[in-house]
Design brief:
Helix content is about 50%, strand content about 10%. It is an alpha+beta fold.
Length: about 475
């Protein structure tokens, strides 16, 4: 934890105890009149905006100005509850005023975005008020105005983990408190690149809503286990009844996953350039990072299990116990939710889930027998680490290969486990003119659903579709009980 955060925590608790006692929690602020006015005005303002965030109709400018007359005082009234965000909340009011003065064209909130630095305040339970014109990943593609109340999730053992071998200074773990419609969706991230701005700065943070990830995990896995008659291990079953425990598990998973994208023996830049390439390359990159989190959790659990319990600190015990649960989370979220969530159009997360399921089945640790799913848990870690090794070997060799040869090798690796579509040009062998041509030809030849769902997943999808659809907009405070499929 940075010196700034330590100083902030100390000053907030020791220097101003009367302020701390009087100041409501961010959860209590969800009922504050200023927040309710702000939220309502933002929702009304959104109706005036075009896809690029502008208010194009001159006839709507008076109404937009009226809404700003509610939004700006509401932000000012709430700002004292967020002293750590004072410079941001001042800057965002200036950005709003400049936007209005310039006629509500395409919004530019770069100045206030640069002032919002949540990674400097990773204090468990700390709140933020976030107001930006932005799109929401897996939510809305339009840069509409959003207002969000959030709470930081940063337990002591995560701070200990992050201060050691798993440092990730850009990572912020959040819990929803309240939000406007762009987040009443499947979006579970708050990324600076989604904000409307005039230029792209160097990004210094990225946030994930672990309460949403945990809540949809609990609902989906509970339903899938019932449908497949899977007997869950006792500690895995306990997660389904404990939202806060599952949130902490997802924080541990995500902090390791996130830092893995640019670490290891990689192709020059496997993911971050956003270059156009066959979608299965994105599948392998996301799965590689998940499997890195899995194998690191196995390593941590085994190392800490080997030490006498009396020698372990409280943080060590928490890391050990959560490391075991991360392994369940990676497996179940991948095979039960990822594989059948979203459309079949270049669904790279879905493909990663299909690959993990098939790999476990073909390596005899997952069984579908007598219409019952069983998993040989003691053998699972080494089998999944073997898949991680295979992807890492592909990456290690990529630096000595042309791009097209790397793509072909990745496809060949996938087809050793998954069956491609019968009409696949890649499976038949790309024609010479494609092989000799530019990368675009390779990518164009990939089918939208290059690796269709297996018969198992087709059947499971029919039973789980309603459950998965019901997780849109879910939060940690939502009910995660079974939903009739």
């Amino acid at each position: 934890m940075s010196q700034f955060v330590q100083k902030f925590s100390q000053d907030a608790i020791v220097g101003e105890p009367e302020v701390v006692e009087d100041r409501p929690t961010v959860r209590a602020l969800a009922a504050h009149p200023a927040w309710l006015r702000l939220k309502a005005a933002v929702e009304s303002f959104r109706a005036l905006q075009a896809e690029d965030g502008s208010v194009p109709d001159q006839a709507d400018h008076a109404t937009a100005t009226t809404h700003l007359a509610t939004i700006l005082p509401a932000i000012a009234e709430l700002a004292p509850f967020f002293p750590h965000d004072a410079s941001f909340l001042q800057a965002v009011r200036r950005d709003f005023q400049r936007w209005a003065d310039e006629g509500f064209g395409i919004p530019d909130f770069l100045d206030s975005l640069n002032e919002f630095q949540p990674q400097q305040h990773r204090v468990d339970g700390l709140g933020h008020l976030v107001v930006f014109p932005m799109y929401t990943q897996n939510g809305s593609s339009s840069r509409l105005l959003e207002a969000v109340l959030v709470e930081v999730i940063w337990p002591d053992f995560i701070a200990e983990l992050e201060s050691g071998d798993h440092n990730n200074a850009l990572f912020v773990a959040l819990r929803f408190v309240d939000f406007t419609p762009g987040y009443d969706t499947n979006s579970a991230v708050l990324f600076p690149e989604t904000v409307a701005m005039r230029e792209i700065p160097t990004f210094t943070w990225g946030a994930i809503f672990q309460d949403r990830e945990a809540a949809r995990y609990r609902r989906v896995v509970r339903a899938a286990a019932a449908i497949t008659k899977l007997d869950l291990p006792e500690d895995a079953a306990a997660m389904l009844d404990d939202q806060e425990l599952t949130e902490r598990v997802f924080v541990m998973w995500d902090i390791i996953h996130d830092r893995s994208h640019m670490r290891g023996d990689l192709p020059f830049d496997p993911f971050m350039i956003k270059q156009r390439m066959p979608f299965f390359l994105y599948s392998l990159e996301e799965l590689r990072c998940d499997l890195t989190a899995f194998r690191e959790s196995v390593r941590l659990q085994r190392e800490l299990d080997a030490r006498p319990d009396a020698e372990l600190s409280d943080a060590d015990r928490a890391i050990r116990d959560h490391a075991r649960l991360v392994q369940y989370a990676v497996v179940f979220d991948r095979i039960f939710r990822f594989a059948i969530t979203g459309s079949r159009v270049r669904n790279y997360d879905g493909l990663g889930g299909q690959l993990l399921f098939a790999w476990m089945h073909q390596h005899d640790v997952l069984h579908w027998t007598d219409t019952r799913l069983t998993i040989d848990w003691p053998a699972v870690p080494d089998v999944i680490i073997a898949l991680s090794d295979q992807i890492n070997e592909l990456y290690w060799r990529s630096i000595d290969r042309p791009k097209s040869a790397h793509w072909l090798a990745a496809y060949e690796m996938l087809t050793r486990t998954l069956t491609p579509h019968p009409a696949s040009a890649w499976a038949r062998g790309l024609p010479a003119e494609t092989l000799a041509g530019p990368p675009k030809g390779y990518t164009d030849a990939v089918l939208d659903d290059e690796f269709p769902l297996s018969m198992f997943y087709e059947a499971l999808n029919k039973k789980m579709a309603t459950v998965i659809a019901s997780t849109a907009g879910i939060t940690g405070s939502s009910s995660v009980e079974d939903v009739a499929a």
